[in-house]
Design brief:
2 strands; mainly alpha; 163 residues; two-stranded antiparallel sheet; 6 helices; Four Helix Bundle (Hemerythrin (Met), subunit A)
Length: 163
């Protein structure tokens, strides 16, 4: 399938953020990667684990909404899988986390690459914020993948400024 320019732009932007995250983290020591700037802030290892958990989650939500237009999508901050990804950072392997991010690059390309431009416009309600109305698939991609991952790159940079 020939990708539309919007879909290709999403794939490229998300992959660039993942690449930047990998590039920043590959040369860091375990001590720096596991440093928690404060009790409320995640360590870089926790951020990497979160991105590895959240990316396939949101790709799955996109696929589900495409298959069943109008179905509710999303989750809350207290989602058990989301919390589990960051709950035990000492058990996380940096090597596995970085390999996971590299795999997410392909996961993003494969999943989003199957979409058509028409599918970007399919609208469905967020399960927690239905009062805001329906949102198109493009909103899920833009907000919960592209902006979300880019935001975590900036979070990693902030953590590094506090080491």
């Amino acid at each position: 399938m020939v990708k539309t320019s919007q879909i290709q732009a999403y794939i490229t932007s998300i992959q660039q953020s993942l690449d930047k995250m990998i590039e920043i983290c590959e040369g860091l020591s375990e001590e720096v990667l596991r440093f928690k700037p404060s009790e409320e802030e995640w360590s870089i290892v926790q951020i990497l684990s979160h991105v590895n958990e959240a990316t396939p989650y949101w790709l799955g939500e996109i696929e589900r909404v495409i298959e069943k237009p109008g179905s509710e999508w999303g989750r809350g901050l207290q989602d058990p899988a989301r919390l589990a990804a960051v709950s035990n950072p000492d058990s996380l392997s940096v090597k596995e986390l970085l390999a996971g991010l590299k795999a997410q690059r392909e996961n993003v390309a494969n999943t989003l690459g199957r979409l058509s431009e028409e599918q970007l416009a399919i609208e469905s309600p967020h399960r927690n914020f239905a009062k805001f109305g329906n949102k198109p698939v493009s909103f899920i991609i833009s907000h919960f993948l592209d902006e979300h991952i880019a935001g975590h790159v900036e979070q990693i940079k902030r953590n590094l400024s506090k080491v």
